[in-house]
Amino acid sequence: MITPPARLQTPAAVLDVPRLERNIQRMQGRMNALGVRLRPHVKTSKCLPVIAAQIAAGATGVTVSTLGEAQRCFEHGIDDILYAVAMAPDKLPQALDLVRRGCQLGLLTDSLQGAQAISRFASEQGQAFDVWIEIDCDGHRAGLRAEDPALLAVARVIAQGRLSLAGVLTHAGSSYALSDPQALAQLAEQERLACVTAAERLRAAGLPCPDVSVGSTPTALSARELDGVTEVRAGVYAFFDLVMHNVGVCQAEELALSVLTQVIGHQPDKGWIIVDAGWMAMSRDRGTQHQQRDFGYGQVCTQAGHWIEGMQLSAANQEHGIVTLPGVSGAELASRFPLGTRLRILPNHACATGAQFPHYQAISACGEARPWSRWHGW
Amino acid sequence: MITPPARLQTPAAVLDVPRLERNIQRMQGRMNALGVRLRPHVKTSKCLPVIAAQIAAGATGVTVSTLGEAQRCFEHGIDDILYAVAMAPDKLPQALDLVRRGCQLGLLTDSLQGAQAISRFASEQGQAFDVWIEIDCDGHRAGLRAEDPALLAVARVIAQGRLSLAGVLTHAGSSYALSDPQALAQLAEQERLACVTAAERLRAAGLPCPDVSVGSTPTALSARELDGVTEVRAGVYAFFDLVMHNVGVCQAEELALSVLTQVIGHQPDKGWIIVDAGWMAMSRDRGTQHQQRDFGYGQVCTQAGHWIEGMQLSAANQEHGIVTLPGVSGAELASRFPLGTRLRILPNHACATGAQFPHYQAISACGEARPWSRWHGW
Predict the structure, then answer these.
(1) Keywords for this entry (chains A, B) (predicted)?
(2) Which of residues 289-318 of B touch A (CB under 8 A)?
(3) Which among A86, A339, A358 has the least Cβ separation from residue B265?
(4) Which of A32, A117, A131, B146 is the Cys-Cys partner for B197 at CB 3.0 to 4.6 Å?
(5) In this predicted model, what pLDDT tens digit does every residue of A237-288 receive, in sequence order?
(6) What is the ipTM of this complex?
C-alpha cells in the first residue's frame, strides 16, 4: 500500500530510500577501493528490501546477530551467512538445520569450551561446520587477544575433526566512543593489525586461516588501508544516526531513518511541546549522552526533514515525548507548532529505534511511502 | 506449545504466572477495599491472557496507550476502553470506527484546540464521543492544572454539541522518582486532590463530571483514601520491576517478568561473563540509574529465579550482555558459570523489556512454559 507521507499514521519509522541507497553505495564503493569484500550486518535493518539493496550494490553475504535473522535471510535466498555472536552449545541444532538445508553458515567461538562443544556436536551429527575465531582488538567485549596462548589451542580443536577453520573475526566496538578522525584511523589500524596478527599466528603454526574479517561502521569509514583483511562487516552505515554523526563519519543529510510524530499538546509555562513519539517509538537509547553533543532522545526536524537547530526530544515516557527549543517562549512554540503539527525526529541509535517498529515506511525519491516489514524477536 | 523452561530458546521473556496472579489480586483487593474501580493499563503487558486475568479478577474496562491496543482489546470483547493519551485530531477516524462498532471509547484532551477538534469532527460525523479532560497533578507531563482558567472553557466545549464530558483524569508520573512511603502517600493525596478539585470546579459551574480517574502503580499502592475518586488506573503492578522495587512498592519475590539468558563466553581477566541478553532483550531502559540502587541493565538470578546478590548485567550491546559480580575473580566466575549456564535477569522496567519480545513464555505453577503473544507497533 502506497501512502503519501502526510497521511502516515504517527508515530512511524520513516526511511529515506534515496539516502539509504547513497549510504549503501558509499560504503560499498569504499570497500571496493580498499580491495575487500563487504559483508553487511543485517542487525540494523532486519529488513529484506534493505538487505537486497546491499547485495545488489555488491555485498558478499551477510552478517547476522541471531539465528532467527540467519533463518530469514536463508529463506530469502541468501546462503552466505556469518553468525557473529559466540555460539551457544544449545543453539547448535538450529544451526545444523540451516547447514543441512544448504546454508553456508559461519559459527563463531572464542573459547576452548566453545570450540569443543561445536566439535563434539559436529562429530555426533556427522556434519561439517565452518567456524570462525573471535579476536578481541580493543578490550570492549568478547574474543581472544591475538597473542593469547589459547588462540592456537582453540584453532587446533577447530582444525581437526569435522570442523573447518574459516577465519578470524574482530569488531572494534570502542570506535563508537571516538570522534577524532586521527584516533579513528588509528583504531581502524589497531583492529586490522590485531586480526591480521592472529591470522598470521595461526598460519605460522601450520593452521589454515583463509579469511580475516574486521569491522564497525566508524573503523570501516576511517581505515586507510586494509592489507591482509579479506572482508569488512558494518551495519549502521546503511541508516546512520546521531551517534555516528557525533563520531564524525556522516553528515546530517545522510541520516536515513527518522521517526514521524505529531504535536498532541503543549505546556506553554514550561516551554514544552508534547508529541506522540515517546520511548516506545524512539527506544530508550541515549547513545549521544556521553558524546560531544547530547541530543536527548533525538534531534527534531520539520516534516520535510529540515533540522531545527536546538530542538530536541528532551524527555520521553512510553507514548509521550517532550520537545524543547531553548530560547523560544512556550507561547511562541504553541503558536508555531500547533496541535497536529508533524515533525520528524532523528534517533540516537538507528538499530534500537528501528527495533521498536514492525515496519519502516520507506519513502521513495518521488515521495511515496511503502511499508517495509522488519523482523522482531529471535 | 508447552516447553519445559530448561529447553526454552534464549533470550526469552519469562513470565511467572503465579506471581502475576498474586500481583493482580493484590491491586484488585486494594482497590476493592478503597471502594474504587480498577481500570488496568494494558500498555505494560499488551497481552490478552494478562488482560483477561485482570478482568477476571474484577477490573472494570481497560486503559490503553494507543488506538492499536484499543482495537485489539475491542476485537477480543472488551468494550469499555479509555485511551489515556491526548487525542491527535487526525486519529479521530480510527476512534470513530471503534465507536461505530459499539466500543465505549473514552478520548482525552487537555486543550481548547483539542476539544474543538473533537467537537467539530463529532458534528461532521453526527457521532457522539465520551471525552475526558486531563489534569496535571504534579507538573511531570501533560494536562491542565485543576485551577487553570482554561479548564472550564475546555469543559464547556465538550459539554455542548455531540460530546459528553465523561470525567477528569490524572496520572502522578512523578511517583516513580520517590521511595519514601510518607512521600508516596502524600503524592497519592496530591493526585487525588487535584483530580477531585478539578471535578468539583466543573460541577460547581453546572457541568457534569461523572468520573474521576487517578493512578500510577506507586500512588495506587500508597493512597490512604480515595474519596471522590471513581476509578484508578495502573499498569506495571501486574509484573512489577526493579524500578518499582526501588520505589518500595513491591518485594523481590513479586517481580513476575525476567529475561532467561545463557552464558556464551567469559573475559576472566576483566571479571566478565558474557550472556546472550543484550539491550535487544533487556531494552535500553536504565530506570534505576538515578534511584537508590542502580541495577545496571538488570539484576541477575539463577535459572530458578534466586537473586544473586551483587550480580548485575553491567553493560549491554545489541545481543551481548556483560555480567559482573564484584569481589569474585574472573576465574572463579568462569568455573561457577560455565558456557551454557542459564540465568534469569530481572529488568529495570517491565514495560520496556516486554516490548522487545514478540511473546512471553508464561510459566505456570507446575513449571510449564506457554507462549503468550504480545502486540508490537501502533
Answers:
(1) Lyase
(2) 317-318
(3) A86
(4) B146
(5) 999 999 999 999 999 999 999 999 999 999 999 999 999 999 999 999 999 9
(6) 0.97
